[in-house]
Amino acid sequence: MSNGSTDGAGRYEIRVKGHLDARWAAWFDGMSLTRESDGTTNVHGPVVDQAALHGLLQKLRDTGLPLMSVTQVEADQPADRPIDPRQLF
Amino acid sequence: MAGPLLETKFHIPRRRRGLVARPRLSERLDLGEESALTLVSAPAGFGKSTLLTDWLTGWQAAAPAGERSVAWLSLDQRDNDPALFWTYVATALDSAVAGVGAGALTLLQASQPPAETVVATLLHDLGAVPTDVLLVLDDFHVIESRDVREGVTFLLDHLPPRTRLVLAGRADPALPLARLRGRGELVEIRAADLRFTPDEAAAYLNEVMGLELTARDVAALEERTEGWIAALQLAALSMQGRDDAAGFIAGFAGDDRYVVDYLAEEVLQRQPERVRSFLLQTSFLNRLTGSLCDAVTGQDDGRAMLEALDRGNLFLVPLDDRRRWYRYHHLFADVLQARLLDEQPDEVRDLHRRASAWYEQDGERAEAIHHALAAEDFERAADLVELALPALRKGRQEATLRRWLEALPDELFHVRPVLTVGHVSSLMVSGEIEGVEERLRQAERWLHPTTDRADEMVVVDEEGFRTLPTAIAMYRAGTALVRGDVAGTMTHARRALDLAGEDDHLARGAPAALLGLAYWTSGDLGASSRLYADAMSSLERAGHHSDVLGCAIALADMRLAQGRLRDAMGLFERGLQRAEQSRPVLRGAADMHVGLSQLLWERDDLDAARRHLQASSELGEHLGLPQNRYRWRVAMARVREADGDVDGALDLLDEAERLYVGDYSPDVRPVAAVRARAWLRQGRWGEALRWARERGLSSDDELSYLREFEHVTLARALVARYAAERSERSIEEATGLLERLIRAAEDGARTGSRIDVLVVQARAAQARGDVPAALSSLRRALSLAEPEGYVRTFVDEGQPMASLLRALAKDGNGGGYVRRLLAAFDGTEVSRPVSERLVDPLSARELDVLRLLGTDLDGPDIARELVVSLNTVRTHTKNIYAKLGVSSRRAAVRRAEELGLMSRPRARQPLR
Asked: What is the fold of A10-75?
């Protein structure tokens, strides 16, 4: 959570079960939608604060798609890129 | 209200044609009979509302007509405003069971009651209903407001046995569910329960929708949709009229896409272009009606279109029985809106703008503002909010007002003085004065515009602009008062009064009361009472009756200090009459009873005093102002004390102190000082002096009216100490303080205070042995008190006062009043604490010694026990003998036993 501010601003990855059409992107405040091979959709992008995050989660809730995870990620560093352990020291 | 209440929100959704019977769920709902809360919690499209409406029909039909009532309310985002939420709930209940809710609605319109009071009123009404009542709050997940949730929790915690609450929504409400579960007060229906079982899916697809699918196809659909009803509905719609159902199912089952995307696509593709574009363009409307759709789409077939969609079962939910208003099923609306945003992002604002214009035409300002804000047409939104201000303020919808104002860009306020002052009002309501002055100045600049301004003022509410100077001055007076700036309050309130038109009653009421308050605080009761009387008549004419009652209490307090008991009595009597004649009874009625009780007590009519306190509690807390809870206890403490229950009286005063809540009125008779006086009547001057020390009171303080009651109490304690210990310093301090107090009371024309001080002066002189001086003070007190019929002020002084009065009577200058007072003493002899039958009561320390005299301990033992010197014990013993009129230890103990002094609980006589 090194990138997280107290307001919770930052990039988030939200995973839901099922493949959401790309046309939903505008509805989800311009977040990007990536359909994964395991049948899930990764909704990711910048979120200005906690209130915005909760608003987004509510919109996702209203689709009825099961929520699988919510993760805050480093800016400009998608979570799926492996972290070089040497960078930690 | 910013616009009328929406009738459609109370409409129980019509039963859909052809339903799948779900006895397993209905039975579970029936179980709720014993539980306060039934929770139906599942995502959109799980058939929550359908299940409830279906079950409700059966539930109501299962009992004789009129035995079971249902109040239904569909919530939306705006109901996060507590005032609006409870208005809707009360209206829903009122239309289900006539009469329930009427009281709450009056409260909500008349003043700004705390939610708890509104809920208590509803509960009171519900408790009196002899039938079963079910309150359904649908879409409860939209409620985010903590205030609303707390109110609902309070409601739940106090629901009468025959009332049940049903909450339906997409998320569990943030209420204490675990506690309810633990008490067995919760019945839950969740997503897992609501999913169609394979049998239910088969019944739906084949029987209701007539699809004639094979068992394998049904199983495949059921598995793919996981029993999600909305998805099954979409699937059924996609298959209607299709030859190759099996092929469709195979394609659907083998796809990973979000089922709703997949199926909505299917459904939409099968619609003609006209229908498709209608669906998209109207998807953002919370409610749909023909002409509104026409305004938004620019077509003229709205009504026909809606009817066709309804017939085709295209996710339209009727909102009334006349097929005038509909809404889309939430899930479907989301899908359509996502498409609209994706396909025609530039259109969206225009659509909102057109919807806003239609609603404005239709008189629904709240909806018009909602759409104007969504269209980001802030100028329009600001115009509309400005016009809605008076209604919002009257309806106390401060939360709504704030939400709208905060959605508007800052720079917009710079040229809109009426809107800016509206913003100030929303801040002041919550006691925020930060930034208020800056805003007032910003608005004020437009009252004297200079020619070199580049920008131009915007005012849509001309009337609001006309009264702007008054409003600005009044809010300045308000902020000054919050800051404790009396002079500032006076200056600005006076200016507001000067500016307000003679006939502008509403505009005059508040500043008159504020100015009166400032005078009251500074001790000028003549000016303050005149202003309060003015404020009351203005508020009366403006129809703000509840506020009139609040002013009556304050004015009666001033009358008490002025020694005008009869005027005070008249205020309470008229207030009570007004409150009780209103339907429903006005809040504040309970306070009128308490006020009357205190006055009747002073006149020694204890039975009547008791009856009024009883009447006050019978009315219920919801008919009392917040201050009534402590005022009632203070009044009741006197009654208890008269009954001889001193401990009970002191307990009540402790409670009163805990329950004390201030309003803007000065706290002229603090509960702690009232308690100190009760101690003094019990001879516990040590505790009274300790209180005075802790309050920082001293005999050479500069005097102010606000501390007058406390200073007179201090003087009493000093006199009591002198009587017990003959400490010269005490009596000197008391005498000096009393002289200054009497002058201050005379200067302020506070006759009530003068009587209070003169009585203590008489006691002080008596204690010094100067009987002529004592009688002189007493005569002056009597001449002031007689016309108003004071009794307890004298009788509460006990035997020393009785002997002074007897001395007056013997001199032949007593008259009927003195005889009446002496007769009142006779009435108290039996009920008063026995220790006060002594001319000079024993001090707490003397009582300690006296009780040890009743034991086998000798002098040195007693000294050790009390950790004092033997000499001190001897002094105490001598005083005890003198006061009891005895000359031996045994006689002292016998006399003390006769007087009941030996059995007094020690707990109330702490060692000093």
From this structure: Alpha-Beta Plaits (3.30.70)
